[in-house]
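Quick question, first post here. What does this chain look like in 3D?
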Amino acid sequence: MSFKVTDKDIQNYSRDGAVVLRGLFSAEEIECLVKGIEANISAPSWRSKVASSSDDPGWFMEDFCTWQDNPAYRRIIEKSSLASVAAQLIQSQEVRLFHDHMLVKEPGTEQRTPWHQDQPYYNIDGKQNVSFWIPVDPVPREWTLEFVAGSHLGGWLMPRTFLDQQAKWFPEGSMEEVPDIEADRNKYEILGWALEPGDAVAFHMLSLHAAAGVQGDQRRRAFAVRLIGDDVIHTPRSWETSPEFPGLIDELPAGVPMNHPLFPLLTD
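> Answer (accepted):
Ran it through. Tokens below.
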């Protein structure tokens, strides 16, 4: 399956750090992904976590790096248009998988995904990167993933734990804090789109993004694929990254491309 990436898509991604791609996946691919997500929920990995509090009337579950054990995920990662689209958006000759990420908010989940950047949690550096957020349920505008346009062009902001806002990765005061965007949303250019199954949002790992909870009886199941390009290198951290890759430093030196079986090359 091929997907036409327009010049406008590439320009929007470069300028805003996020772009919506309508109809990136076929109905058959979404059906495959639904099966993969349900299998993942039934048999979570050791990396899985509940990202909502115990008193939340809903339930927010995440899992990471299960593509090797989930044929449906592997099919989407290796056989869909993802790698080709990524190469065009980030202007890279090579595209590798960094990791997969499943996110499910069950009906009634109040837990917000707070405003944050992804890259400070990771063990990589480099500007040529893209994450695809792929819902398999309809997502209305008020529950969708939102972005601050152009925020990927700035520096790193303090990463904190989502539930209790702890600074586990950098000492308090050592980095600029994420601004209180919700206090004055009109101050920012906030992007977000209502999405149907088959649509996806592509965004840079430094883009500030967030999402609300879900209401009523609807689920919000999504699959994210993080892809990396030519300039991305292994950058081991002195803290526990999310996700973590135990023992990777013994097999992949610091400062080199991510040429390792955990991060397969997806482009020819």
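Residues 27-42 form the longest helix (16 residues).
The chain has one domain: 7-250.
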